[in-house]
Amino acid sequence: MFISEAWAQGAGGGGGDMFTSFLPLILIFAVFYFLLIRPQQKKLKAHQAMIGSLHRGDKVITGGGLYGSVTKVLNDAEVMVEIAEGVRVKVARSTISTVTTSSNAGRAKSAGPAPANDSVEQPSGGIIGRLFGKK
To answer: What is the pTM of this model?
Structure first.
């Protein structure tokens, strides 16, 4: 008699129980999306924009650690990089990890007059330097 009552009490409704069992999985996916997936997508878009804006004269660092300057943009997948005087290497665009100096930055500075606040020295040293005004 007691066994049948125990089984009857254990069998509950399944409607709300299914939602509560999937709720932790949904929350874990949301955390993974905002902490891992979304920042990776932003980083990938920024890298593709950087690679797409390569021009002749840009100083670059390849994925293998070679420093050089872009001498010629061959096509959408390749660029010619000069790594030493007279030494040119054909490099896949996707292997370029960083553009250290852009040729467009030099053109933009010389294109027009300097802003009035351009001559003011900015404190360096990161956040602490800015907080304490160190130079």
So the answer is: 0.58
